[in-house]
Specification:
Blueprint: H1 20-44, E1 50-51, H2 53-56, E2 58-65, H3 71-80, E3 87-90, E4 97-102, H4 110-123, E5 134-135, E6 142-147, H5 153-162, E7 167-171, E8 179-185, H6 188-200, E9 205-214, H7 216-245, H8 250-271, E10 274-275, H9 277-307, H10 313-345, H11 349-370, H12 372-383, E11 429-431, E12 454-456
Parallel strand pairs: 1-10
Antiparallel strand pairs: 2-4, 2-9, 3-4, 5-6, 6-8, 7-8, 11-12
Length: about 450
């Protein structure tokens, strides 16, 4: 028989269950440390996480420079130019590029808006509509105008620019008798380019690489939506595992994936990496990977309990964890190779995404072996008096709320091919009480309580 590659030698007998308390203590310390770092950041930095523009609101502008300029000079210039709370950082793996973040979301103030509105009323030949003729939504980079006759678009741009509200006028289809116009203000990015060129000399900024603008209200809503997405995912996974896999394993799986998500968030808080919508996507990916890895381990535990149900549950669980150890480590290692490649070769937001997956893969491997199974044993002992696992080998089901998918009509666990009517063949069972072949009759000995349990005949028996 061809022997497959094994990273962990077969026959390994690491005492996972016997040492579960110390590993749970390590997990508890990591979780408390993560919350502690979040608290320290909130106290010292004013924010628990380095929220990106998606969550904090404001504008993030990436500029390519024609010459090297010290970051401290750029930061000082931003303050001198009136950009309060601004920050500037060098872009990794990009020469002479800088990422500037400001709280501004539009290049027009309320005072400028009033000046521009008066200028439009005075200069426009086409009268503005009395009903919402000049509207500038809060934190918007557009002004919505509505005229009662065909306007002069070039004249609109000239009047607005002369009054300090530079931008572009675009016609929009409206109702009959109405001529709506969308006036796009010069973005924050273009304004920053103009200001920096004036400060360091014309042509200092080569071009605008990218620009993002998010209002503070939108940022707050995205925070809520991101947290809700995580909670919905965890709750949905719990319901699915409880209904379709096994009720006794569901709490362990949920504790494990929650444990993984918290530690990854703690890693972002510790390294002060930007926490944005891409990070939420990475966390959801980790949650999915975590429950997948945990279910594979749990399935081996359930299979081992079916085969050796008379042995102590701690012993069979430990044996199952050792049997799946090589598979778990190999799967995580190959996944890590890809993640590390993305981390090393990627740039920008993809590096933070890969960082989240890197930490997540390590923590997921740990939790599927050292966190999920101890929780299952605790649930089995606390709520099933240490005998709940035996239902997995009984003919009444495997513990799923949808019923047993593996029990045959004759009570043989595992759904193996049923033997002939006289009990011969590979599907025949062995009576626990006597060890003799069962012929399907009702004259064999029974367990206390009146029900009978069967198990598969093992090869060679």
């Amino acid at each position: 028989m061809e022997k497959f590659f094994e990273l962990i030698p077969s026959g390994t007998n690491f005492d996972f269950v016997g040492r579960r308390k110390r590993f749970l203590l390590i997990s508890l310390i990591m979780i408390l440390t993560s919350f502690g770092i979040l608290g320290v950041n909130a106290a010292r930095r004013g924010s628990a996480l380095n929220f990106g523009i998606d969550f904090s609101g404001g504008s993030q502008v990436r500029l390519a420079l024609t010459k090297s300029v010290e970051l401290n000079e750029i930061r000082g210039a931003m303050v001198d130019l009136g950009y309060e709370g601004s920050s500037a950082v060098a872009v990794p793996d990009a020469e002479n590029q800088v990422m500037i973040r400001v709280k501004d979301v539009t290049s027009m103030t309320d005072a400028q808006e009033e000046v521009c509105k008066k200028a439009m009323l005075a200069a426009s030949k086409a009268p503005l509509s009395e009903d919402n003729g000049f509207v500038h939504p809060n934190e918007s980079s557009k002004i919505f105008m509505k005229f009662t006759s065909e306007p002069d678009y070039a004249g609109i741009e000239k009047a607005m620019t002369d009054s300090g509200c530079a931008g572009q006028a675009d016609p929009v289809v409206g109702k009959e008798g109405e001529y709506p116009v969308d006036f796009s203000l010069v973005g924050v990015g273009n304004k920053i380019i103009s200001d920096l060129d004036g400060k360091f000399g014309e042509g200092t900024v080569d071009h605008l690489v990218s620009s993002e603008t998010v209002g503070s209200k939108v940022g707050d809503q995205l925070k809520v939506d991101g947290a809700a997405a995580m909670l919905y995912a965890i709750f949905g996974i719990f319901i699915f595992v409880m209904l379709r896999f096994d009720l006794r394993f569901a709490p362990g799986g949920i504790v494990a994936l929650t444990h993984d998500a918290i530690i990854v968030v703690g890693a972002f808080a510790l390294t002060w990496r930007e926490f944005n919508l891409q990070t939420i996507a990475a966390l959801l990916t980790i949650v999915g990977y975590s429950i997948n890895d945990t279910i594979v381990v749990f399935d081996r535990v359930r299979e081992r309990v079916n085969l050796d149900r008379d042995a102590p549950i701690e012993e069979t669980t430990n044996k199952a964890l050792n049997e799946t150890l090589s598979r778990t480590v190999l799967t995580s290692t190959t996944t890590l190779l890809v993640v590390v490649s993305i981390w090393v070769l990627g740039s920008g937001p993809i590096k933070d995404f890969a960082f989240a997956l890197f930490i997540g893969m390590i923590v997921v491997t740990y939790s599927s072996l050292f966190v999920a199974s101890p929780i299952f044993l605790w649930v089995n002992d606390r709520f099933y008096q240490g005998r709940g696992h035996l239902a997995m080998a009984d003919e009444e089901g495997t513990g799923t709320l949808l019923g047993s998918a593996s029990s045959g009509e004759d009570g043989v666990v595992g759904g193996g091919a049923a033997g002939p009517a006289d009990g011969a063949g590979p599907g025949a069972g062995v009576d626990i009480g006597t060890g003799e072949g069962s012929d399907g009759s009702d004259d064999g000995p029974e367990r206390p309580g009146g029900s009978r349990r069967r198990r598969r005949r093992r090869p060679g028996s």
